[in-house]
Amino acid sequence: MTLPTSDARPIGIFDSGVGGLTVLRTLARRFPQESFIYLGDTARVPYGTKSPRTVERYTLQVADHLQRHGVKGVVAACNTASALGLGALRAHQPKLPVQGVIVPGCRSALNVTQTGRVGVIGTRATISSGAYRTTLNLLNPTIEVSDIACPLFVPLAEEGWTHHAATEMIVRETLTPLLDSDIDTLILGCTHYPVLKEVIQKVMGEGVMLVDSAEAVADELEQRLSDTILPNHSGAERTILYLVTDEAARFASVARRFLEEIPLEQVEMVDL
Amino acid sequence: MTLPTSDARPIGIFDSGVGGLTVLRTLARRFPQESFIYLGDTARVPYGTKSPRTVERYTLQVADHLQRHGVKGVVAACNTASALGLGALRAHQPKLPVQGVIVPGCRSALNVTQTGRVGVIGTRATISSGAYRTTLNLLNPTIEVSDIACPLFVPLAEEGWTHHAATEMIVRETLTPLLDSDIDTLILGCTHYPVLKEVIQKVMGEGVMLVDSAEAVADELEQRLSDTILPNHSGAERTILYLVTDEAARFASVARRFLEEIPLEQVEMVDL
After folding, report:
1. How far apart (Å, rounded) are the C-alpha atoms in residues B32 and A126?
2. Measured between alpha carbons, how far is A143 from A139 in angstroms, rounded to an integer?
3. Which entry of A24, A69, A77, B129 is 20 to 30 Å from B24 by CA?
4. Parts of chain B with a pLDDT under 70
């Protein structure tokens, strides 16, 4: 008897909305043979303002739905769900390989920092959970972590106020405590924040490296595909299916900007 | 046989979050003999960024839940739900007296305007629906309506950036088209906006009257209570029950600020 060496089932990726498409884009480029199902919980976005119990409940519902689509593993591309939902998800579906964005983001930051002083920004729910702080300190107990919740960054990013004086004012005022903490590395702990990268870099100064976890997540998945999940060597053309909980048409128009050359063909609305 | 003249059942009020508490406060003061059930759909807030179909679905779920609690009528204290959900709700539950905030707000504005040029601000969903524009023109076809969506006002209000230079900058830039339209009355078409009243007034100038619909809703309900709904003359002490879809403790801490002297005793979490 030979063990199977290929698994053509898709990889599930989810986020509260469109932000996780940057993670999908990175993974779709890196793994051209893999099929993906992206689930954006666009009716219930944002997760970052909600309570731990609600985020946990939503995470389980989303993962159950992906599993009904026959995924071979799940990537939580949402920082809030990664921080608050994955413990419950692993307990609920112990056989499903699950990967979040927090551990890869922390590893990436630890590779980059010279001084050992790392900053983290995220939604209120992500920062309150302490998930980044705990993970950084587990990986390296000598790291000094400064974290801060940035609740206005998601609406500013979603509404496209990326290059406006008011945005710079809000970013500067929100990040002031980090400026005093003398960090050399800053983790963008929310998939929405990369679109505000320029203004965040301007406020923090050139001496601070910004860490966006999409690439780190791809590295981690590469490891997984040679480890617990089997890659797809079937040779069949890969598919990408998009599922949303709010209107599909609205999602499609925004998603194209995030996806760049990655195709957006099948978008279906589902009710969770 | 004598007809009943009193109905001790509570009146249901709902909003996507805490904003509708300003309506509850006004109604609770004006009708001290009436019991209320407030339902804040705090897990799925905001409604104003969602599609018509999703807002409609949420409105029906919320009203069904209130009806299971035995309400004698429902007030939609959410402008987005009033704009997009009430048609479906009336079709779904034709016997349930239902009142929105849009008609009362429009009546109020028409009483105030001298020039017949009225502005409306609201969420993207409310403005896109055209509900204010249609209602104003039904009530008075000669009225000139200028409306504009203000998607950043809700997060600014929720995060407490009510007196900040960045907020004034965003309010000014968003409202610029209204400044050019020479209105004398502006409807605050979202229950969150009254907390930004000062900066909106500053930007619009003293010549523009701001209309907040909470008082107008109370006038309309007074009419209803002598008309389709029976008032409560039982003499029993009234109760106010609060239902939320996200964490009750978090709601309670914010709600106290909105409710002023109105008591907040029973808060229960429900799953819709």
Report:
1. 42
2. 9
3. B129
4. 1
Residues in A closer than 8 angstroms to B50, CB to CB, are: 43, 246
Task: Give the model's confidence band at A181: pLDDT under 50 very low, under 70 low, under 90 confident, else very high.
Answer: very high
DSSP state letters, B160-190: T-TT-HHHHHHHHHHHHHHHTTT-SEEEEES
CB contact under 8 A, A50 and B166: no
Give the count of domains, chain B.
2
List of residues 6+ apart from B63 with CB closer than 8 A: B12, B14, B74, B89, B92, B93, B96, B98
The residue out of A190, A212, A234 marking a domain boundary is: A212
Q: Print the domain residue range for A32.
A: 11-100+215-269
- Chain A residues with CB-CB distance to B155 below 8 A: 151-152, 154-155
Q: Does B16 appear as a known binding residue?
A: yes
Domain of A135, CATH number, reads 3.40.50.1860
Count other Cβ atoms within 10 Å, centred on residue A199: 22
DSSP-based three-state secondary structure for B46: coil
Mind spelling out the 3-state secondary structure of B151-164? CCHHHHHHCCCCCC
What backbone torsions phi and psi does residue B189 show, to the nearest 5 degrees?
Answer: -85, 40
> Would you say A90 and A98 are in contact if contact means Cβ atoms under 8 Å apart?
yes
Main-chain phi, psi angles of B145, to 5 degrees = -110, 130
Q: Evaluate whether B122 touches B160 at the Cβ level (below 8 Å).
A: no
Closest in A53, A161, A247 to B53, CB measured: A247
Residue B6's Cβ-count burial label (10 Å; 0-12, 13-18, 19+) is exposed
Q: Which residues partner with A33 through β-bridges?
A: none
What pLDDT, on the 0 to 100 scale, is given for residue A1?
Answer: 61
One-letter amino acid at A118 equals V
Domain match, B21 and B119 both? no
Same domain? For A233 and A206 the reply is: no
Query: How close, in Å, is residue B44 to chain A by CA atoms?
Result: 5
* Whether B78 is catalytic: yes
Question: Do B258 and B206 have their domain in common?
Answer: no
Instruction: Match 């799953």 to its residue by tokens.
Output: B271
pLDDT above 80 (res A77): yes
Query: Is residue A190 annotated as part of the catalytic site, yes or no?
Result: yes
- Mean per-residue pLDDT of chain B: 94
- B interface test, pick of A53, A152, A251 with most B CB neighbours within 10 Å: A152
Q: Please state the length of chain A.
A: 272
Active site residue: A78, A131, A149, A188, which one?
A: A78
